[in-house]
Amino acid sequence: MDLLMPMLQRPMQLQIAALCHRMVDGKAQVLLITSRGTGRWIIPKGWLMRGKNASEAAVVEAWEEAGVRPARVAETPFGSYVYDKIKRSGLPVAVETLVFPVEVRMLEDEYPERDQRRRQWIDPAEAAELVDEPGLKQILLDFGAGSGK
């Protein structure tokens, strides 16, 4: 069994995510979108991109998946969470996701994945109830409680 462990324990992969937020009547709201495959509620996320740092890549994902035009973007992540991404092969791969706060200036109606996803502004505590990943739930709760802007 010791001989098989290196093949069974794949290294963790890294993704970046945008915690898109705004203030409405003095209260924070976060933007959730649906995943393309299952339609579950998530935040915009994706892989690192050549020529972009992690926060810049998070902004690209927020644009492509949700039509976000940013006002301000944090250079450092607010937190991170780990989840199992199911690859095309059907096998799960552990992925650590760095979450960058992105203050939203405006949402565009025309953006690359507009026909593939829904989006919704929501209170961070309510958003935590809608997402599946425990680590993301906690990030949303922490953001709402302390406002990680």
Secondary-structure map:
Layout: H1 5-8, E1 13-24, E2 27-34, E3 41-42, E4 45-47, H2 54-66, E5 68-73, E6 79-86, E7 92-107, E8 119-122, H3 124-130, H4 134-146
Parallel strand pairs: 1-7
Antiparallel strand pairs: 1-2, 1-4, 2-3, 2-8, 5-7, 6-7
Textual characterization of the structure:
With 149 residues, the protein is an alpha+beta fold. The protein has one domain (5-146): Nucleoside Triphosphate Pyrophosphohydrolase (Alpha-Beta Complex). 25% of the residues lie in helices and 40% in strands. The protein is built from 4 helices and 8 strands, in the order αββββαββββαα. The protein has helices at residues 5-8, 54-66, 124-130, 134-146; strands at 13-24, 27-34, 41-42, 45-47, 68-73, 79-86, 92-107, 119-122. Strands 1, 2, 3, 4, 5, 6, 7 and 8 form an 8-stranded mixed sheet that branches. β1 and β2 (27-34) form a beta hairpin. α3 packs antiparallel against α4. The protein is globular and about 45 Å long. The relative contact order is 0.25. The model has no long low-confidence stretch (mean pLDDT 92).
| Helix/strand structural class | alpha+beta
**CATH class wording:** Alpha Beta
SSE order: HEEEEHEEEEHH
CATH architecture: Alpha-Beta Complex
What is the domain tally?
1
SS strand fraction:
35-45%
What percent of residues adopt helix (DSSP H or I)? 10-25%
Q: Provide the low-confidence segments as ranges.
A: none
Distance between the termini: 47 Å
Assigned CATH superfamily: Nucleoside Triphosphate Pyrophosphohydrolase
Number of helices: 4
Which fold name corresponds to the CATH topology? Nucleoside Triphosphate Pyrophosphohydrolase
Number of β-strand runs:
8
Largest sheet: 8 strands, mixed
Q: Mean pLDDT, as a whole number?
A: 92
What gyration radius follows from the Cα positions, in whole Å? 16 Å
Shape summary: globular
